[in-house]
Write a structure and sequence with these properties.
about 375 residues; alpha+beta; Resuscitation-promoting factor rpfb fold; 4 domains; four-stranded mixed sheet; 4 helices; 24 strands; about 15% helix; rod-shaped; Resuscitation_pf_RpfB; signal
């Protein structure tokens, strides 16, 4: 037995087509609406894609800004598109390989060349720093507090600016200065008048001066006095000065001759204290010279006449070879005699006749007869 298939009829096909036409007619509005929406979505997508392809960015170079419209997506591509080349020392706000979006900003600061003179050398340095201090620091230069920088550290950096750095070194040295000691004189009533005695030896003091020397780049340029300190005080020399009047009489002998009284004793004359054998009063002084006729250069005692030393005396009054002190004249030595020289009369020798004549005659002088040894200054 076979399977029975119901055959299609003309009536069934007409019914199907009629159904399709009826569905299409009923849903035409919905189909149209869907198509419009699809077109709108596609249009929006195309606009979005176009917007993603074209973007606006702000490009700032050395403070000057400009708006740039570009299709490029990378920073490097935009710079290449705008023919902008970067110096190795230029700074940029974004990495070259970073992506760009609409409204992004690219800031470029151009490096400028400056000349830096330091430690005897000059080199060109490119910098983007705004201040001299920052440019110097960028070089790794360590400034000391006394170093000089021209122009000043807070000055603006400009192209081809000359920056000079002078190394300043200050050294403090010490200089010694001796302080002389003073001589202090004190009266001493136990010492004879005219005599002195050192009570304390003096010694110099010492002052240390501090002097600051300034060197610029190793060359000395200036110095100044900083201060001083006393290292050692000066010690004064103390000298006792005698004020005691001489009272001692060494010889009690009193002799009288030709109306004159001779008394031996101790006295101080011309700052020299000496013993004397006798004192001659009312002595008359005259002068003579080898330039006079008949006067030789040899004395009666055999010595050669000498101005300031030789006198002619009466050898019965003053022995030859003895020293005397003549008031107003000083120490002289009895070396010569003369026919007219007798008693209390003394002839003083001068080299020139003019000086002898000028001396003239002097009366009423006191002469101290000392002895064969000349007193020395105490």
């Amino acid at each position: 037995m076979g399977i029975f298939h119901k055959g299609e009829t003309h009536e069934s096909r007409s019914s199907s087509m009629s159904y399709a036409m009826r569905w299409k007619h009923e849903n035409l509005r919905q189909i149209t609406l869907v198509g419009v929406l699809a077109i709108a979505v596609i249009f929006i997508i195309l606009i979005w894609l176009f917007g993603q392809d074209h973007k606006k960015v702000s490009l700032v170079v050395d403070g000057k800004a400009q708006a740039v419209e570009t299709k490029e997506s990378k920073v490097a591509e935009v710079l290449n598109e705008q023919s902008i080349q970067l110096h190795p020392k230029d700074t940029i706000s974004r990495p070259l390989n970073s992506s760009l979006g609409d409204g992004d900003r690219i800031v470029i600061v151009r490096a400028v060349p400056v000349k830096v003179s330091l430690d005897g050398t000059t080199k060109v340095h490119f910098t983007t720093k705004a201040k001299v201090e920052d440019a110097v620091s960028e070089l790794g230069v360590r400034l000391q507090k006394d170093d000089k920088v021209t122009p000043a550290l807070d000055s603006e950096v400009s192209a081809n600016l000359n920056i000079q750095i002078v190394r300043v070194n200050k050294q403090t040295v010490q200089k010694k200065e001796a302080i002389p000691f003073k001589v202090v004189k004190k009266e001493d009533a136990t010492l004879l008048k005219g005599k002195t005695k050192v009570v304390q030896q003096g010694s110099q003091g010492l002052v240390i001066h501090s002097i600051e020397k300034v060197f610029e780049d190793g060359k000395f340029v200036a110095k100044r006095w900083v201060g001083k300190a006393v290292s050692k005080n000066a010690k004064p020399k103390i000298v006792a000065v005698g004020t005691k009047q001489p009272t001692a009489v060494l010889s009690a002998s009193i002799t009288r001759k030709a109306g004159a009284v001779s008394i031996g004793g101790l006295t101080t004359k011309g700052g020299v204290s000496f013993k004397y054998k006798k004192a001659l009063k009312n002595v008359t002084l005259t002068a003579y010279s080898a330039e006079e006729d008949g006067i030789g250069t040899r004395t009666a005692s055999g010595t050669r006449v000498a101005e300031g030393r030789t006198i002619a005396v009466d050898k019965d009054v003053v022995p030859l070879g003895w020293w005397v002190f003549i008031e107003g004249i000083g120490f002289r030595k009895a070396e010569d005699t003369g026919g007219a020289i007798n008693g209390h009369k003394i002839d003083v020798y001068y080299d020139t006749l003019k000086a002898a004549n000028h001396f003239g005659k002097k009366k009423g002088r006191t002469v101290y007869v000392i002895g064969p040894t000349k007193p020395e200054l105490n």
